[in-house]
Recover the amino acids of this structure.
């Protein structure tokens, strides 16, 4: 039987993969820098937690609501922020992260520094779900998100995002409503981050403001950058590798923040496309191997 | 009492100016948000403290701290930012964030997670006139910061290099066609900005008698808020915004005693100003 | 009613007057040349018309309506297409996809419709016609950044035409092109004009300007110093001085 420890890691990794994927929509697909993504993770987690512990809503309502609330906040914040120059966006998203964390920390309604506890795993068929079952659940949701991403990639929205990413001004001159599509990416990314937050809250059973600060935003950003901004599987690979490594290696766990920092630095400096990017060493080795295999037949 | 708070506000504002100017100067010339600048600020404090422990003299430690910070700034510019200028601006920004994160951790790993004491004394003693009281460190701050600001002003307005720097911030392409060595100007820009940040680090380290690994975190976003508030890339704007924030913090917390986190004042001020002047106090489109 | 009416248009940057009280009109099916020495404000004029930055003063009326306060995409949706001085196709997208982008606003008006696939047969058909006319059919699946300069320029025009524009702003289309490429491009521009589309043409190549344009507006240091037929402009002393003065 699979050990409880392994299942816990797997669940956390899927949640991170969801989070990284959601940041990728904003940063990788639409090309907008967001340095405060953990704020929406937190908004989702707290929404779910409060609906469950204070209002008695079950998991099956509290988690979708987490996505909805995070999406709405994303819209409210996104609409003014995305109209300004992208440098301002970096600063405002950082600021949003600080403010949201401060709200959770200082306003007693949200439990303050102690956070919120007593959030349980969902119930179904009259009993509480087991961890392996929870894993299957979020894995299914995750694959649905990937399917949605594939659909978006072929859609006009996906093309509009690509044109904005390539050249915002030229896109506008070709009739693309740049602000509308940026906001759309922001709302979608925030909503999915909120969803991940809901899953997180119900799994960890307690949440604290510190889980959703700037440091967490950097962790998620590292996963996306390491794996490959803008690619479909890059952020997921990034989440898996950076999620597993600290667990299997004590020294890596000790120095993981340093590693995240150096990773961001080194990747952007030398391999901005990330591990799965088209210019990366991995991609080149992969292509060369495929070429050699196919030409030897 | 009011004069006291005024003096406190000016002292704090002047240190903010020292930190924020480097940030706005880098933005003005490279259009990069140099988040790692706060790491250089903390590095200045650590280097200054180390040299104080070795040499026992405040002034020497100040100079060494500034020099260390300047060198670090140069390395960042040459090896991290310049090679990335052809990429979209998200790239140097992420590099900067990664560097800042790594620097804070490096401080923690190398110097330990605990707060270190930096009690440098110059033998000046405090100044007391009635209920108006300036500590020795506050006098030092006012002296050093104003000396640096005056030097910067003179440099930017009176020297050829300074004028070249201002021209580059306006329009690097045209400037280079006039014979300005843009690459050299960028390097000097970083050297000066980083040295000022290093000085700020030393001054704050001495003022609080504390040097610790994450001392750059709050200045990281506060300096950003100040720079945006004053107008990204605008030097007089940044100086003005620094004093506005310094005085606002002191008055709201010290005089009006509003129960509001002190460090949020900069951010709130920024948002308020942006609502009426979207490019900052003195910024232009 | 003129297709485009520009009246007393001015733009200031930080105290520098890039454009000062410029007025002229443009008509459908006509190529209007905009010439002047470097720094005269020609590209600034285009940027104001296409809404990339706001004007400081004056009027811009398109088909009788003011477009002063409109955003870039609204102006392009109304029917003003443009190319750029330094050519800017969507570098990592192929030729066909580049042109598809400009079709978006017509075929996907609502958010719901926008979730539909962008490569629909009727749109692709339109795009292929445009690509054919620009002479780029063999390169339809080529990535834009790998194209030679001349093809990129044609791609930009095809892309702008996908907007179904009434007015086309062309910014130095022949810059950097060899003689034959330039001639081919001019053929394309004539085709565009013959379709009834109005063209504003910024050019430094005097041969091209004199050949193509029915009327010419001359800018210098932000002001209009002359307007008229090619013959009138050629012999206008102010114009000669403006150009010679720069070379002296």
């Amino acid at each position: 039987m699979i050990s409880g420890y392994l299942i816990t890691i797997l669940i956390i990794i899927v949640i991170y993969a969801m989070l990284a994927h959601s940041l990728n929509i904003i940063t990788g697909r639409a090309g907008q820098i967001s340095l405060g993504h953990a704020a929406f993770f937190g908004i989702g987690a707290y929404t779910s937690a409060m609906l469950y512990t204070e209002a008695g809503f079950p998991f099956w309502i509290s988690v979708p609501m987490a996505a909805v609330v995070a999406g709405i906040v994303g819209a409210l914040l996104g609409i003014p922020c995305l109209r300004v120059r992208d440098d301002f966006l970096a600063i405002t998203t950082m600021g949003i992260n600080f403010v949201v964390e401060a709200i959770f920390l200082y306003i007693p309604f949200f439990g303050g520094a102690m956070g919120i506890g007593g959030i349980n795993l969902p119930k179904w068929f009259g009993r509480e779900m087991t961890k392996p079952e929870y894993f299957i659940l979020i894995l299914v949701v995750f694959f649905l998100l990937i399917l949605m991403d594939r659909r978006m990639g072929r859609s006009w929205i996906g093309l509009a995002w690509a044109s904005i990413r390539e050249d915002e001004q030229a896109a506008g001159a070709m009739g693309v409503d740049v602000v509308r599509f940026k906001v759309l990416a922001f709302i979608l990314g925030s909503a999915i981050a909120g969803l991940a937050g809901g899953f997180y809250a119900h799994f960890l059973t307690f949440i604290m403001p510190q889980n959703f600060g700037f440091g967490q935003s950097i962790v998620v950003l590292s996963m996306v950058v390491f794996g490959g901004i803008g690619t479909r599987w890059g952020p997921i690979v990034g989440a898996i590798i950076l999620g597993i490594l600290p667990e299997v290696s004590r020294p890596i766990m000790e120095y993981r923040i340093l590693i995240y920092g150096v990773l961001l630095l080194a990747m952007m400096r030398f391999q901005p496309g990330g591990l799965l990017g088209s210019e990366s060493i991995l991609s080149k080795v992969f292509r060369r191997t495929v070429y050699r295999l196919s030409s030897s037949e | 009492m009011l004069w006291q708070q005024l003096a406190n506000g000016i002292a704090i504002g002047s240190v903010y100016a020292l930190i924020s100017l480097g940030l706005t100067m880098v933005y003005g010339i490279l259009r990069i948000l140099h988040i790692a600048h706060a790491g250089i600020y903390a590095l200045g404090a650590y280097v200054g403290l180390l040299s104080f422990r070795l040499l026992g003299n405040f002034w020497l430690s100040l100079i060494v701290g500034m020099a260390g910070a300047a060198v670090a700034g140069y390395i960042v510019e040459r090896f991290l930012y310049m090679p990335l200028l052809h990429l979209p601006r998200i790239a140097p920004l992420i590099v900067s964030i990664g560097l800042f994160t790594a620097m804070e951790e490096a401080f923690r790993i190398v110097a330990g997670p605990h707060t270190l004491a930096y009690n440098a004394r110059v033998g000046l003693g405090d100044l007391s006139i009635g209920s108006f009281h300036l500590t020795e460190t506050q006098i030092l701050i006012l002296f050093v910061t104003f000396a640096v600001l005056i030097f910067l002003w003179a440099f930017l307005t009176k020297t050829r290099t300074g004028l070249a720097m201002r021209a580059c911030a306006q329009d690097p392409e045209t400037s280079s066609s006039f014979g300005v060595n843009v690459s050299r100007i960028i390097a000097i820009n970083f050297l000066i900005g980083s040295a000022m940040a290093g000085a700020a680090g030393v001054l704050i380290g001495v003022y609080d008698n504390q040097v610790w690994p994450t001392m750059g975190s709050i200045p990281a976003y506060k300096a950003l808020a100040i720079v945006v508030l004053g107008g990204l890339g605008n030097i007089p704007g940044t100086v003005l915004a620094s004093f506005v924030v310094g005085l606002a913090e002191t008055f709201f917390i010290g005089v009006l005693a509003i129960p509001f986190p002190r460090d949020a004042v900069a951010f709130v001020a920024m948002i308020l100003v942006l609502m009426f002047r979207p490019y900052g106090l003195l910024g232009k489109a | 009613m003129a297709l485009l009416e520009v009246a007393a248009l001015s733009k200031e940057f930080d105290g520098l007057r890039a454009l000062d009280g410029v007025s002229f009109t443009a008509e459908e099916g006509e190529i209007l040349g905009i010439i002047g020495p470097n720094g005269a404000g020609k590209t600034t004029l285009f940027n104001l018309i296409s809404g990339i930055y706001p004007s400081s003063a004056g009027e811009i009326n398109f088909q009788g309506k003011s477009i002063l306060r409109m955003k870039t995409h609204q102006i392009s949706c109304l029917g003003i297409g443009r190319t750029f001085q330094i050519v800017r196709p969507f570098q990592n997208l192929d030729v066909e996809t580049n042109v598809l982008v400009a079709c978006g606003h017509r075929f996907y008006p609502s958010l719901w419709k926008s979730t539909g696939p962008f490569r629909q047969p009727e749109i692709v058909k339109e795009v292929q016609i445009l690509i054919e006319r620009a002479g780029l059919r063999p390169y339809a699946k080529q990535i834009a950044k790998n194209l030679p300069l001349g093809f990129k320029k044609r791609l930009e025009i095809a892309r702008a035409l996908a907007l179904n524009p009434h007015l086309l702003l062309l910014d130095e289309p022949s810059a950097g092109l060899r003689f034959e490429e330039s001639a081919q491009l001019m053929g394309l521009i004539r085709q565009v004009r013959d379709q009834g589309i109005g063209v504003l043409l910024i050019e430094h190549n005097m041969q091209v300007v004199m050949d193509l344009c029915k009327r010419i507006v001359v800018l210098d240091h932000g002001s209009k110093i002359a307007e008229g037929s090619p013959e009138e402009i050629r012999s206008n002393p102010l114009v000669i001085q403006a150009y010679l003065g720069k070379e002296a």
